[in-house]
Amino acid sequence: MADRAPGGVPILSQGVVALVPMRHHSERVPGKNYRPLGGRPLYEHILTTLGACPEIEQIVVDTDSPVIREGVSRDFPRVRLVERPDHLRGGEVSTNEVLLHDVEEVSGRFFLQTHSTNPLVTPATVSGAIRAFLQTYPQFDSLFTVTRLQKRLWDRSGKPVNHDPAVLLRTQDLPPLFEENSCLYIFERSVLLSRRSRLGERPRMFEIASFEAWDIDEEADFEIAEALMQSRSASRPGAVEKAAP
User: Fold this and answer.
1) How far is CA 36 from CA 151, 152, 227, in A?
2) What's the pLDDT at 28?
3) For the residues 210-228, what does the mean pLDDT come to?
């Protein structure tokens, strides 16, 4: 029998609430979250992606930015805005603390958290991650996306991490390691509240393409993301991205 939520609703039919924290100020890239990328403010890309995922029942933007609030209210009227309080606006504040505030403001059982700085992740990947989590819950109590690494890695002391220098394997034959890419996190409310972390005791890794996991953190990342976006558009002639209503 399928797992059911309180009230008898099957887990797989449960809607997920998407949380997208967006600060007004950025230390390394001024105005990063609303800076244009591909002719649109950066935050529009992830909101359009989330709006195309049928598993997501509500999108919530947590922000202290008047620029973002105005733009989201105008162009994404179905997105809920949550005002970030003063004590959570500093660059040193953990994302977990912001999420704890958000789940107190927003009802729901399952939550997905992502960033505006991941503009290349696709609706298919987001939906696939949600389905993978719900299908294996409660065996896994949370999910995070990873990127496969098959490169020769060394630690600071000069010791090999994942290879034997005396045996020159092809990189594709190296045992893979996986990088937490901070693109998507999925968790249950109770896990966040009890552990004060978006990762539970039994997290599931969900591998995604490095192309989709590209994160904008520095100036050069904007140029690379722009090039990747143009390359993807060129490979899909006639494709046009539209904002969610």
Assistant:
1) 33, 36, 14
2) 84
3) 94
Query: Which one-letter DSSP state was computed for residue 202?
Result: S
Can you give the three-state secondary structure of 129-167, one letter per residue? Answer: HHHHHHHHCCCCCEEEEEEEECCCCECCCCCECCCCCCC
Q: Which of 45, 19, 39 is nearest to 215 (CA)?
A: 45
Q: Which domains are assigned to the chain?
A: 12-235 (3.90.550.10)
Let me know: does 178 contact 149? Beta carbons within 8 Å: yes
**DSSP assignment letter at 176:** P
Alpha-carbon distances of 206 from 66, 113, 123, 136, 178, rounded to whole Å: 34, 14, 15, 12, 10
* Residues 118, 46: Cα–Cα separation, whole Å: 7
- How sure is the predictor about 241, in pLDDT bands with cuts at 50, 70 and 90? very low
Mean pLDDT of 130-154: 96
CA pair distance 238, 234, nearest whole angstrom: 9
pLDDT at 211: 93
Cα distances (Å, whole numbers) of residue 131 to 134, 207, 245: 5, 14, 24
For residue 68, the Cα-to-chain-centroid distance in whole angstroms is 18
Structure tokens at 78: 């179905």
What are the tokens at 27? 């230390």
